[in-house]
Specification:
3 helices, 3 strands, globular, Alpha-Beta Plaits
């Protein structure tokens, strides 16, 4: 059985920004998933783009550096380093 990789957050934002970041990562060959996507839709007044309730983009820890580079260059946003 393969060992599961740890997921790390590389981006936080509103649901639209997070989906765009996820799509940029997929286009660059990095698998990514969203976390807390519905919170910003259900209760947008309780979320802040980079803080509490923000939609998060997660990638495998082994892909984190490549994901951050894609977000910096192709997406034009500074990724977060939350490892």
């Amino acid at each position: 059985m393969a060992k599961e990789e740890r997921l790390v957050v590389v981006f936080r934002g509103n649901p639209v920004e997070a989906n765009l970041a996820k799509n940029a990562l997929h286009a660059g060959g990095v698998e990514a998933i969203l976390k807390d996507e519905l919170m910003g839709t259900i209760a947008p007044f309780q979320t802040s783009p980079g803080g509490v309730g923000a939609t998060k983009v997660l990638v495998n820890e082994s892909d984190a550096e490549r994901a951050r580079e894609i977000l910096r260059t192709d997406f034009g946003r500074e990724p977060i380093d939350e490892g």
